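User: My advisor, Dr. K., asked me to get a structural model of this assembly before our group meeting. I'm new to this, so sorry if the format is off. These are the inputs:
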Amino acid sequence: MIEVKDLCFTYPTGVEALKGITLTIDDGEFLAIMGQNGAGKTTLVKHFNGLLKPTKGEVVVDGVTTGEVSVAQLARKVGFVFQNPDHQLFCETVEEEVAFALRNFGFEENAIKKRVDWALNLLDITQYRQTSPFMLSGGERKRVALASVLAWDPQVVILDEPTIGQDHQQKEKLRQFIVQLNAQKKTVIVVTHDVEFVAECNPRVVLMTEGKILAEGPAEEILTNQKLVAQASIVPPQITQIFLGLSDFGLPTNVIDVHEARRILLDILEGAS
Amino acid sequence: MAVIKTRDLTYTYPGATKASIKDVSITIEKGEFVVLTGPSGCGKTTLCRCFNGLIPLFYGGKLEGEVVVAGCKVVEHSIYELARHVGLVFQNPENQLFALSVEKDVAFGLENLAVSRDEMRKRVDWALQITGIEDLSERSPHELSGGQQQRVAIACVLAMQPDVMILDEPTSFLDPVGAQKIFEVINELNKELGITVILVEHRLDLASKYANHVIVMDEGKVVLDGEPRGVFNSEKARLIGVGVPKATRLYQILGENGIRLGRVPVTSEEAASLLREVLKRD
Ligand SMILES: Nc1ncnc2c1ncn2[C@@H]1O[C@H](COP(=O)(O)OP(=O)(O)OP(=O)(O)O)[C@@H](O)[C@H]1O
Ligand SMILES: Nc1ncnc2c1ncn2[C@@H]1O[C@H](COP(=O)(O)OP(=O)(O)OP(=O)(O)O)[C@@H](O)[C@H]1O
Ligand SMILES: [Mg+2]
Ligand SMILES: [Mg+2]
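Assistant: The format is fine. Below is the predicted structure of the whole assembly, which you can bring to the meeting.
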């Protein structure tokens, strides 16, 4: 469990990025943090693995107060994939990159090999095993960054903008994998602007604006609330927009999923004829 | 008039075992708004690098075939000369920012264009304002959030108002309202100043309505090249895994269930109005 209590954070430059955040994230939860640029999303999640320490307030991860331990102590438990993969990648080959943390955590060579194979396959980058991460496309680099964290199977996974550079198929694979993690009681926290991805996943959503939490709740409630969405600089999913445009036909307006949309429309049209 | 024309363009990065783009022959007319899409790793960024001369001048490697941009054969010109005609917003905004302040970064490109100081001031202010970063003008680009950095990278290229503007996933870090605003600005520049736009995108829900030409790549090759509705609704686009707009997807799913809408919608407004007709009929 992650407990954030009245968290404030000010950068050395004087920018007040977090202004009193209180939030509880349960084990096995799937949470999406959304909101306008500069709202403080990245700053907030960097507190969950101790990369940043609170200026005021506290963050407790599984009973451990992050201000009192080093990043290394939290690392095994909390995996973090950066918004920009270039901040994370430094090895000569993709394989070494993915094996790096495993070696650090003292896994046996046999286990390392198995986990590297598994992660490369999961992220569809096996063919780049011996390639330098810097000779890959943007989306491929992001997947190497994802593989290098998922390989060690942390209890909490934090993904800052995981869908950047990913095509539809890769996103769908990622979604299915997150569902699997949740089934194993792993906590997944995603920071994202990708409304359509969130609509497909339907997680709990936390909306942030200007260093504060604006609202939280199930995706289908939050993303279909026009007022909240506008305040957080978000646009409702396309399916929601379509249904908002049909509200005078008495159709529900809290629809985010294309298959639910089909069900509702078929019911009406087939019922009528 | 064609502003970009390639013929059998094939390129292999130094040390790579296979070509990253293969036999690409495309024509982009002046004033078009092009969306370039396709699976991760299919060669979109590589193709963009051929348009502003980064390939082959910066990356080296082996370039075969021909690429002409704004009347210049790319291999015969310097990156600096090409920059007068072509502006590129990098996929990773951080790689584009290097000055000490946001404002200096945005002004940098203009200094090479020999515009007057007055004009320069005007364009920098305009670009900062239109990307919503006036308040950050004195900040260091390296102490900004991801989306703020991307806004700076976009402002740099907007300020230059080049003949051809190439944007490589320019909104991947932007909040959706910010992304929409940027697309609208680009659309205005396209319609009013006739600037040719090439937009690389995976998230087609937001961008498609502006495009009048869509190019889909797969494994280094151009596999679809045409008008948006036809491309998005094609079986091939679905097989390759192009993330067609949800409005188009709904049209397809309803079609499979025997409900035909009048035409292929790309935006939510179009889908809603087509659905109104069907709902009214019943
Ligand atoms: N290294 C830094 N030094 C100083 N200020 C920073 C730094 N990083 C971020 N900031 C500022 O802190 C605030 C919050 O930034 P943060 O990166 O948390 O935003 P975000 O919600 O992740 O935004 P985005 O959606 O653009 O990634 C912004 O005003 C930003 O300019
Ligand atoms: N600098 C490089 N050196 C060698 N190979 C490269 C380099 N950059 C990219 N590649 C390879 O070229 C191919 C095309 O990459 P490119 O960056 O053009 O893809 P992309 O379509 O832009 O993908 P994405 O959507 O993930 O950004 C990929 O297989 C990639 O691994
Ligand atoms: Mg961020
Ligand atoms: Mg790319």
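One thing worth pointing out at the meeting: Chain A touches chain B through 54 residues (CB under 8 Å).

User: Perfect, thanks a lot.
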